[in-house]
Specification:
With 91 residues, the chain is an all-alpha fold. The protein contains 4 helices and no strands. The longest helix has 34 residues, at 57-90.
């Protein structure tokens, strides 16, 4: 009975919601990883960000991307440069 009521449009909406949920989970882990890799934040600032991620997860992830998005990009660029140096040293 349940399968008969589940139409194509409902399947597409379910896939849509699932896709955006996976994107949000990916962003959450990306923010947490960047948060703990940041050496320019104090322990208290990290604790406040983690508390915000637990209490208001959607708003905190968006706020982190807005406030510290440029630092995330700098951390990624520094990691890529360090990886390039390590690769050239190995070769």
């Amino acid at each position: 009975m349940l399968l008969a009521d589940f139409g194509t449009g409902q399947v597409l909406w379910s896939l849509f919601y699932f896709f955006f949920f996976l994107i949000w989970i990916y962003l959450l882990f990306l923010v947490i990883a960047d948060l703990f890799a940041s050496h320019d934040l104090s322990g208290w600032a990290k604790a406040i960000w983690v508390a915000a991620l637990i209490i208001l997860p959607y708003i905190a992830v968006l706020a982190y991307l807005i406030v510290r998005g440029h630092k995330m990009q700098q951390h990624v660029a520094a990691a890529a440069a360090a990886q390039e140096i390590a690769t050239r040293a190995y070769i």
